[in-house]
Amino acid sequence: MIFDSLPRPFFVLAPMDDVTDTVFRQVVGKCAPPDLYFTEFVNVDGLQSPGREKLLPKLRFSEHERPIIAQLWGKVPANFEKTAREVAEMGFDGIDLNFGCPEKTVIKNGCCIALVDNRGLAGEIIEATRRGAGSLPLSIKTRLGLKTVDYSWHEFLLQFKLNALTIHGRTAKQMSKVPADWNAISHIAGLRTSLSPATKIIGNGDVMNRHHGEELAAKHKLDGIMIGRGLLDDPFAFVDTSPWSTWTKEQKIALYRKHVQLFAATWRHNERKIYTLNKFCKIYVSGFDGAKELREQLMRANSAEQLLQLLDTADSPVAV
Ligand SMILES: Cc1cc2nc3c(=O)[nH]c(=O)nc-3n(C[C@H](O)[C@H](O)[C@H](O)COP(=O)(O)O)c2cc1C
Tens-digit pLDDT profile for the chain (320 aa)? Predict the structure, then answer.
């Protein structure tokens, strides 16, 4: 079982929709791999509908991204069961349920963090997923509550003897507007100790690098730390001492070129639109003279080939 074989603390690449696809996970893996990868969240009701083909790319992964957990969300327990069975057959190392997304449309539909107020359905979803998952580990990612901090929610979840529980230290109402509350995460780790000692607790929210994560894990007695946006500032966030601040323009452009090449080789039939690369541009094209102007130029590219040409003229290739 993967969670038992991870170091303590272990570091996890956060699921980020339209960001942490197989391509970016491989880029992060090449720079400084985490101990565990998550896919973007994938809707089970969509997967079990005629729209399935459009969603399947979110579940694509390579053997370089191990161990990897598929993150699911949705409404209908039978679709969770069916999808969990498929995910097990695809070779994933675990299944995570997204009980944390705070988007208005998602909440209106009664999904994710809205389940705080519908524990009957939350329980059915957990049981259905477990039936489909067989021996695969089952984890949940959630927040501190819907509008206010609600520890009864975490007590409820811990009754299911999950393999892991990730806590993003904010309520849904707080979105990302206030700093993550690590004391609240610490309190939930304490609840775990009495209610479900084998469940690993993963803390999440505003961690920028490994050193910061190690400090928080030690202070709050956590098993793991999840990092999301920190990777958009520094793709080496998972190593002790990141070389990123010393990287030259040429090195950064060479890494972006690799990212674009992998994108072009992976998403062959327009499965991902070229503009989805724009959100990565700022990672690589920043911190040197002329970066802003170059970004503006790169973001206007309408094919991977054009983007690669622009990168070639921006600077001659160097090895990374
Ligand atoms: C662009 C973006 C997409 C996200 N998509 C997901 C998702 O698919 N599933 C999920 O559980 N959380 C998602 N999140 C939340 C992150 O996983 C994480 O909980 C949040 O960003 C806080 O961690 P951080 O401060 O390390 O970024 C997303 C966050 C961002 C910024």
Answer: 899 999 999 999 999 999 999 999 999 999 999 999 999 999 999 999 999 999 999 999 999 999 999 999 999 999 999 999 999 999 999 999 999 999 999 999 999 999 999 999 999 999 999 999 999 999 999 999 999 999 999 999 999 999 999 999 999 999 988 999 999 999 999 999 999 999 999 999 999 999 999 999 999 999 999 999 999 999 999 999 999 999 999 999 999 999 999 999 999 888 999 999 999 999 999 999 999 999 999 999 999 999 999 999 987 545 45
Domain total of the chain: 2
Within 10 Å of residue 302's Cβ, how many Cβ atoms?
A: 10
Please work out whether the CB of residue 208 comes within 6 Å of at least one atom of ligand 1: no
In a domain, 241, yes or no: no
Mutate-to-test residue for ligand 1 from 168, 222, 278, 283, highest number of ligand atoms within 8 A of CB: 168
Q: Are residues 306 and 265 in the same domain?
A: yes
- pTM beyond 0.90: the answer is yes
Task: Give catalytic residues, as residue numbers.
Answer: 101
Buried b (16+ CB within 10 A) or exposed e, 11-33: bbbbbbeebbbbbbbbbbbebbb
Compute, in angstroms, the gap from residue 312 CA to the centroid of ligand 1: 32
Print the domain residue range for 131: 2-233
DSSP letters, 260-271, are HHHHHHH-TTSS
Q: Is 207 in the pocket of ligand 1 (CB under 6 A)?
A: yes
Q: Comparing C-alpha atoms, which of 152, 170, 41 is closest to residue 96?
A: 41
Distances (CA, A) of 299 to 27, 105, 164: 20, 29, 39
Instruction: For residue 15, report the distance from its CA to the centre of ligand 1, in Å.
Output: 6
Claim to verify: residue 153 and residue 278 sit in the same structural domain = no
CA of 112 to the centre of ligand 1 (A): 13
By most ligand atoms within 8 Å of CB, the mutation choice from 229, 234, 278 for ligand 1 is 229
Do both 219 and 252 map to the same domain? no
C-beta 14 within 6 A of ligand 1: yes
Ligand 1, atom 10, residue with closest C-alpha: 15
Same domain (yes/no): 39, 180: yes
- DSSP single-letter state for residue 15: P
